[in-house]
Amino acid sequence: EKVSLWGGRFAGGPSDALAALSKSTHFDWRLAPYDIAGSRAHTRVLHGAGLLDETTRDAMLAGLDTLLADVLSGDFAPGEDDEDVHTALERGLIERAGADVGGRLRAGRSRNDQVATLFRMYLRDHARVVAEHLLAVVAALVEQSAAHPEAAMPGRTHLQHAQPVLLAHHLLAHAWPLLRDVERLRHWDARTSLSPYGSGALAGSSLGLDPEAVASDLGFAGSVENSIDGTAARDFVAELSFVCAMAAVDISRLSEEVILWATKEFGFVTLDDSYSTGSSIMPQKKNPDVAELARGKAGRLIGDLAGLLATLKALPLAYNRDLQEDKEPVFDAVDTLELVLPAVAGMVATLRFDTERMASLAPQGFSLATDVAEWLVREGVPFRVAHEVAGACVRVCEERGIELWDLSDDDLAEISPHLTPAVREVLSVEGSLASRDAKGGTAPVRVAEQLQRVRETHADL
Ligand code: ARG
Fold first, then answer.
1. Does residue 6 lie within any of the structural domains?
2. Mutate to test the pocket of ligand 1, among 321, 322, 325 (most ligand atoms within 8 A of CB)
3. Ligand 1 mean position to 323 CA, how many Å?
4. pLDDT for the residue 285
5. What is the pLDDT of residue 20?
6. What residue ranges line ligand 1, CB within 6 angstroms?
7. CA 441 – ligand 1 centroid, Å
């Protein structure tokens, strides 16, 4: 016979179809250790409020200890008739501590405040894991940047050659967004450090239980100010889903570049064998599957966030059963990142850059034209004119199939009297890089300082 939590009012148990629909143990079982931690804290406040004598309290705590050990060893698992993790664990406790002890635990709490609390605990733990994985990707980018302090590459806008930049500058441009994602996780954690335990079903508890005591017992900074908010709010889930999706998108942009760089046409990087795959038919193939899967899975995380927001939209206060749909998307987001990030960190750490090829392509596509224009400005020419003159240089070169530095003194003079042979001093990648020496620029001295600041930020997070 099915045991339900609400037997008194009902003549019979749920239909098979309802039971099947209701069931969540296949995804919420991962909350079991947190549920037991919550029950231990709840046992203590029940005792504190005079609702459990010492003997019963100790029997309850011992029963919960045995239950936790059995959950961790796999000896206790949810059964066919258990609706959710909370129901299953109550059954497990009663089997271990007896109905008289186990049956007292539910006083003054509801699955509504329970699940809101456990979910926060679980997500806070995993947000920390995700942050560590993100920091490992940043560390790989830092290592690669430090290993290539002088290497130049074509910087692009619209995927077209734009201006030469340092490879390290480019790699660090991928590190900063990831550091901000970690910062977002830290700020989210501080906001999520409030325990809803004691909110009860929605209105709070009448039994003199102390929510602050439970909160500190469970590692929260405090308890929520409003029991309705405590049981109904899921913005902490949506916010974490967003940060996960954002991190996945940031990783996807890095991955896309690795995929491009590994093509024959770019030829910028070689992937390590341990981070690439072959083809079952084409013997020569070496595929960037890590980067492609990371790019592909970003789509899942965007879907996880969108699905969750759609579930939350227009839900009236307080708890609604719809909220049971809050878990799978964010579990998927976190699981996916925990799978993707270590692979991406390894892929980045083992990339081999063809710095010669990158450097030789850096000035191609007339990427020094801006340097010509800015040289003219330093010579006192208005930028509007300077832009025209540099553009004319490009046009002449394009017509003749030559590069800017191939223009003769006569060519230069013919294009504009402002163009003296001295302009050649900026027609080199080194000169161009070194000249962009304001804070945030790609000059090697500035990038070395930037690398130091990335390291400091990394260490502070
Ligand atoms: N399993 C539910 C959830 O995850 C918690 C139970 C609350 N159910 C209820 N009928 N009040 O949201």
1. no
2. 321
3. 8
4. 86
5. 95
6. 24, 84, 111-112, 115, 319, 321, 323-324
7. 53
Residue 284 is predicted with a pLDDT of 87
Ligand 1 atom having least distance to the Cα of 24: 1
Residue-level pLDDT at 206:
87
Are 405 and 429 contained in the same domain?
yes
Which domain-ending residue is among 327, 360, 393?
360
pLDDT per position as a tens digit, 287-324: 999 999 999 999 999 999 999 999 999 999 999 999 99
Global ipTM: 0.95
CA 370 to chain centre: 37
The per-residue pLDDT for 2 is: 52
Residue 163, phi then psi, degrees to nearest 5: -145, 150
Map tokens 């007339």 to a residue: 366
| 265 domain residue, yes or no | yes
Ligand 1 atom with the shortest distance to the CA of 323: 12
Q: How confident is the model over 367-385, as pLDDT tens digits?
A: 999 999 999 999 999 999 9
Domain harbouring 408, CATH code: 1.10.40.30
Distance from Cα 85 to the centre of ligand 1, integer Å: 10
Structure tokens at 162: 């734009």
Residue 318: is the preceding peptide bond cis (ω within 30°)? Answer: yes
pLDDT value, residue 141: 98
- By most ligand atoms within 8 Å of CB, the mutation choice from 30, 83, 106, 111 for ligand 1 is 111
Catalytic residues: 158, 279
Q: How many structural domains comprise the chain?
A: 3
Which ligand 1 atom minimizes the distance to the CA of 321?
Answer: 12
Distance between Cα 397 and ligand 1 center (Å): 71
Q: Is residue 5 part of a domain?
A: no
Residue 141 burial (10 A CB sphere; 0-12, 13-18, 19+): buried
Output the CA–CA distances (angstroms, integers) from residue 155 to 5, 79, 165, in the order listed. 64, 59, 5
Low-confidence ranges of the chain (pLDDT < 50): 1
* 32-48 helix and 54-73 helix, angle to the nearest 10 degrees: 180
Both tokens assigned to 165 = 């930049």
197 assigned to some structural domain: yes
SS3 44: helix
What is residue 225's predicted lDDT score, i.e. its pLDDT? 98
Range of the domain at 192: 112-360
> Which atom, in ligand 1's list, is nearest to the CA of 83?
1
